[in-house]
Design a protein that fits this description.
This protein has 244 residues and is α/β, with parallel strands linked by helices. The protein has three domains: 90 residues, 3-Layer(aba) Sandwich (Rossmann fold), CATH 3.40.50; 89 residues, Rossmann fold (3-Layer(aba) Sandwich); 40 residues, no CATH class. Helices cover 34% and strands 16% of the residues. The protein contains nine helices and ten strands. The strands form three sheets. Strands 2-1-3-4 form a four-stranded parallel sheet, sandwiched between helices. Helix 2 packs parallel to helix 5. It is elongated and about 70 Å long. Keywords: Repeat. InterPro entries: BRCT_dom, BRCT_dom_sf, ECT2_BRCT0. Pfam families: ECT2_BRCT0, PTCB-BRCT.
Length: 244
């Protein structure tokens, strides 16, 4: 599949999936127009999609990533499902569709291997899904190929190893910010999760910690508060009163 979008124009079939209300989004139309001169393209209704048996030569372009047709296509073993932003990015950069499991909404995390630490199951699954939709590889385990660690709270073994090895540690807001930048951005601009604009989401040394300040006068408390916040603390508990 790696070379299909770039060098196999004669064998690849691009299917643009209409929404249930038959009104395609503007970006889906844009992707269709960009592809129709180079590839065999066809529009499919929801009903049409429910009848197809995808092959490895078929690529289905969906927007939004939801609905009956989308869910059916994702469930098909050989189905390749991408979003219009993914197709446009690959065409503009003359790159293959990332060789990772679909569905792929965009390519902002292409070539990244991401793992997480400290998140409850539901939050971790949400991060995993979003990373994968951005063409990233999600790993439950930390290993030598991991490029980024998303951190709920510093101090875990994964975090310590990542810091020792110089692997970037990121806050969960990084994943959200990258996604929002892709969705809100111009279709002619490629967004990468490693762009400099996402550097503010690097994990600070005290990220996620809850700090209690006790037995200190008010000026000292305020100084500590400022230092803690500068190093990533956003939840804080300041003990006040005669014993504070």
């Amino acid at each position: 599949m790696e070379s299909s979008i770039c060098s196999q124009e004669e064998t690849v079939n691009l299917y643009f999936v209409q929404r249930a209300d038959d009104s395609p989004s503007s970006i889906l139309l844009c992707a269709s127009q960009a592809c129709e001169e180079k590839f065999r393209t066809r529009w499919l209704s929801v009903e049409d999609c429910m009848q197809v048996t995808p092959t490895k030569e078929d690529i289905f372009i969906c927007d939004p990533f939801e609905g009956q047709a989308f869910e059916y296509l994702v469930s098909c073993p050989k189905s390749i499902v991408v979003g219009p932003r993914c197709i446009l990015s690959c065409l503009q950069r003359m790159e293959p569709i990332p060789l990772v499991p679909s569905p792929l909404h965009n390519t902002a995390m292409s070539r990244l291997v991401v793992t997480t630490t400290g998140f409850p199951k539901a939050e971790k699954e949400g991060l995993q899904r979003r990373v994968q939709h951005m063409s990233g590889i999600y790993s439950n385990n930390y290993h030598q190929d991991v490029t980024h660690l998303v951190v709920k709270m510093v101090g875990s073994e994964k975090y310590k190893v990542a810091v020792e090895q110089g692997v970037p540690t990121m806050t969960e807001q990084w994943v959200t910010a990258v996604w929002e930048a892709v969705v809100a951005g111009d279709t002619s601009e490629h967004v990468s999760a490693t762009d400099e604009c996402f550097q503010p989401y690097l994990c600070q040394p005290m990220h996620g910690l809850v700090v209690c300040v006790s037995q200190a006068d008010q000026p000292t408390k305020m100084k500590l508060k400022r230092l803690i916040e500068e190093n990533g603390e956003w939840r804080r508990r300041v003990v006040r009163g005669g014993r504070g």
